[in-house]
Amino acid sequence: MPSPVKPKKALGQHFLTDMSVARRIADTISDCPDLPVVEVGPGTGVLTQFILADGRDLTVIELDSESVEYLRAGNLPGLLPERIVEADFLRLDLSELMGGRKFCLTGNYPYNISSQIFFKLLDNRDLIPECTGMLQREVAERICAGPGTKTRGILSVLLQVWYDTEYLFTVSENVFNPPPKVKSGVIRLRRNSVTDPGCDFARMRTVVKTTFGQRRKTIRNSAKSLLPPGVVFPADSPLGAMRPEQLSVEQFVQLTNLISDLRS
Fold this sequence. Notes:
Elements: E1 15-16, H1 19-26, E2 37-40, H2 48-53, E3 58-62, H3 65-72, E4 84-86, H4 94-97, E5 104-107, H5 114-123, E6 130-136, H6 137-144, H7 154-162, E7 163-171, E8 176-177, E9 184-191, H8 201-212, H9 219-222, H10 249-263
Parallel strand pairs: 2-3, 2-5, 3-4, 5-6
Antiparallel strand pairs: 1-8, 6-9, 7-9
């Protein structure tokens, strides 16, 4: 069993010490058993060992040099040295990393970059049909939040265009070294069948970010900055009186198309 390595707090990493939780997380990678797996932030390999035990084709991405040294010392039988990548996941070209192959993404994601990891997932959605893992519970709940919930935000909408999101279970802060100040949540995202959201997705991203950036305002007011001077949001649109967290993905598609028409 992997022994602990003193973590570097600057990386925002908290190392999992409960083997039963690690086993449960490894079990979430279920939909694509024939695809390779990429694990972000393996640390000392607590989750890694269970993924390897399942016979998965595994590559790990780790930035902490002490953890990389530990992994390369052969402490995890079955983890090939060439599959241990010392790098910043956010800076990697994922298509180049995996030779253009699709893969499953998982990990005990560092809290301080977890949102950025999921924006990178969004940009690589055609490569990643399944993503699972553990992150700060607040972020996990936000990713899975549906319309009308206070936790719904930018990531909720943009990810749910392309993925079916599922909050699986909560993890106590007491099973980490060092213990974080918050609980964690384990989630699973499965790529849906959408190939065309029905609008310009780049513009939709702008609409979602702009409206959630002024989430206390109604759409009629927050959308003003997206419209040309002198153009007024239609008074008869039912979307105008709503706030961004109330809108479904389909309604954001409608809003994006409406704004596109008003700009043309």
